[in-house]
Amino acid sequence: MGLKALDYETMNENVKKVQYAVRGELYLRASELQKEGKKIIFTNVGNPQALGQKPLTFPRQVVALCQAPFLLDDPNVGLIFPADAIARAKHYLSLTSGGLGAYSDSRGIPGVRKEVAEFIERRDGYPSDPELIFLTDGASKGVMQILNCIIRGQGDGVLVPVPQYPLYSATISLFGGSLVPYYLEETANWGLDVNNLRESVAQARFKGITVRAMVIINPGNPTGQCLSEANLREILNFCYQENLVLLGDEVYQQNIYQDERPFISSRKVLMDMGPPISKDVQLVSFHTVSKGYWGECGQRGGYFEMTNIPPKTVDEIYKIASISLSPNVPAQIFMGLMVNPLKPGDVSYDQFVRESKGILESLRRRARIMTDGFNSCKNVVCNFTEGKSLLSTGHSKAFVFCDFFSALLLGYHTGAMYSFPQLRLPPKAIEAAKQAGKVPDVFYCLKLLEATGISTVPGSGFGQKEGVFHLRTTILPAEEDMPEIMSSFKKFNDEFMAQYEDNWNRSRM
Amino acid sequence: MRRFVIGSARNLIESSRQKYQFERSILSSPYRFLSSSPAADSPSSSSSSSSTMAHPVSLNTINPKVIECEYAVRGEIVTLAQKLQEEIQTKPDAHPFEEILYCNIGNPQSLGQQPITFFREVLALCDHPAILDKSETQGLFSADSIERAWQILDQIPGRATGAYSHSQGIKGLRDTIAAGIEARDGFPADPNDIFLTDGASPAVHMMMQLLIRSEKDGILCPIPQYPLYSASIALHGGTLVPYYLDEATGWGLEVSELKKQLETSRSKGITVRALVVINPGNPTGQVLAEENQKAIVEFCKQEGLVLLADEENVYVPEKKFHSFKKVSRSMGYGEKDIALVSFQSVSKGYYGECGKRGGYMEVTGFGADVREQIYKVASVNLCSNISGQILASLVMSPPKVGDESYESYSAERDGILSSLARRAKTLEDAFSKLEGVTCNKAEGAMYLFPRIDLPEKAIKAAEAAKKAPDAYYCQRLLAATGIVFVPGSGFGQVPGTWHFRCTILPQEEKIPAIVTRLTDFHKSFMDEFRG
């Protein structure tokens, strides 16, 4: 008998090609070490509640009541649950067809999609059609559905920012398409230069690739930058000229760190531009309940909104969604609660504000400790936020900030969850990595993990310019652990650099 | 007996694809049956040159494999049902019936089935653990649900139900599930073999993704079948290799048929990679006999096929259900002998928790290198939803004798199962009394799939109406009675035979009305068309 159907040699090559660094070699090694009893500090996934962030009380109360609707009939329910949570639970149950245990429409509960549309309209100032909003099991599922519809084969290319979140590279490989990278400019605060885009498209075309879509991650992951309105206009113009569908990953839209440049949705800019562009450029925007002070990653709730996608294509996307029956219903309720939050005067409002403010303040302090920590290390450079107005906090080198006051007022908030410092690795370290058969930053991150238990993601997992190395950490470890984490990082780093540096006297900056 | 070669099967599928629509059970979102022919989808440069300024995502330019999953979002029968429902709402006497009776929907809680209280108590507490410490909570929740919630939270790192978990699912929950499988089968189960997923569908997609390299790769699928498989195969660009279930032996699965279809497809250059077995059957409701399962295992072993066992529809009122894992282990076959994937979901069974999207697959018999790849694919989507994961562990470890909730739990469970059995029996008897209708027994699932011999004149009338005869029957039935069935042509069937699928899920008090209306309609339909 020859090979079995699922021997490694006979499995789908596209699967093998997938690289997924967020849960790759580093994560697996970290898990092994954890099993061996070593204390591991996971900073590899933006997973706030895993690192001690408490969920907001109100949404949890509402969903708990929806899970156990029989409580609503109990005369004592008011002893534990506030009146507004009870009212909201009744509201959402009335929108479902059989509670949390029944499949919803494959696109999500119509009433929740309506609340999402109202949120978008409040945000952008333009009406949004609930029929063009699909709820999904997390934003990743939505991205996968849309890319599945776009990619026909390896002749189809998708423009993806580098560094990028590896969901895109992984999904494009899985569906057999071609990733067309465009580089973000680290020296320009990870800005997006349209000339780079043109060059990327030209190169891809030269190779016979039809570039069909462009991904922007705004605010950026892992880079944390926020695109300006002018930049978004350039991008939309570019998509118009090149006939690309724009995939706007806007899952960090509630993670803005400075008030001078608030988040502006691609959709708002598109609408502002007016016809013909506003009627022509195709746009799919993604959002999630996993980020921001919500951080409800485990719920797997998300949505995408389609603009200028023809009805027949929408039907096809609906069909693909239908094969998976429906997104999970509890997360749909979370999404409803996120886009339709409490208002001043509601019984639970004060607590809600207190909790979100607490999370934001702490995130900001952690971001500060981390950035300062990195910048005190040998050969480590954290990007400056030049060109962006900083808060009254002065000239910190942090590119991770949050202004919770303006955030709360606007309904947008927090700081990116990530820090993406550059590592200036000495040639000897690069040589040692080669000897070990590792990419240099993977080599560094593995050593860091072994020495300190800090689990990070090497920059090569996101893509970076050749010869430049980074690591990504989240800023999410518990605040009280932060000083210790940073001092053990510094100790490791400085020893590592010293070990490989000897004759290498290039200055740090 | 086996008159049908693969060619005719393919013709059948092709023709069903072109002509007929199939009502997807739920979601008012009907499918068409899928083509088994590969998509003509090589991304030729000509079709994608930038000179054609078609939008990047218009129907002409999207992935043809997507279009290949023929599926009408608003299928005729469900659309008609929705229209009738609206008419009844605005004008109650518009039709000779007061309500639409949904027998097409595999979505029990949307039809009034109540969830199991204990499961929901635990889920509510896990969603809002802040109340676990409060004394008032004890007045609202059972003591064992509080205890169980603590146990589960302790299995979750940081007690964080709002965190992404391990991409295979929370380890402690997988331990519980593995222990449940072990208790069920009497053979060990390894928690590392379990991948928790958002319902069973993503698990099926994942396996198809791994198996299918091109249209040259074939997957053996039963006809009639649940369209998830055909949809997933088409989406991943493979070829569906159909095999027929034998209605005469209660939808039996004969290995001789498998062999024949395997050989035929091999002679056409198709590499058959896996065999899908749905046990208990959907839509056919049969439970395979253990001997039959052994022969299937042997077949897969000899032919080097991955056995994809959809084992989610278990109700088992009569026959005892045996998992394929148990059967293969009892034959002495271990990890090295057979590659086996078992799919499970929380949507079926007495709990019917469709909206939770909980499910898992147990993956055995693969090398470590392949397992790593499965893990990688799972990790791209980060993890499945935690609430669904918790529920998947709860259904594998319900309250035990002596627990405070045991009595209410078992009363709820038995109430649902015995009511389902009564409903199945009543409907089955009613179908069997109809002229020209023969009905299988609902042995282990929530469906009946009666065969209907339609008079020549009815078939002619259907042709004139440009419908499949069974779709025509179902449409007439709906218009006359408000009863919604799914025509068999949506699942595939032996050419010249006609069926419909009826769930046994409508609430028990509605069953007599269904029987009366159906019986009256059928009689007048047959009177109208009888030779």
TrEMBL record, chain B:
BP GO terms, sorted: L-alanine catabolic process
Pathway: Photosynthesis; C4 acid pathway; Amino-acid degradation; L-alanine degradation via transaminase pathway; pyruvate from L-alanine: step 1/1
CDD domains in UniProt: AAT_like
GO MF annotation: an example: pyridoxal phosphate binding
Entry keyword set: Aminotransferase, Pyridoxal phosphate, Transferase
Cofactor(s) it depends on: pyridoxal 5'-phosphate
Name this polypeptide is given: alanine transaminase
Lineage of source species: Eukaryota, Viridiplantae, Streptophyta, Embryophyta, Tracheophyta
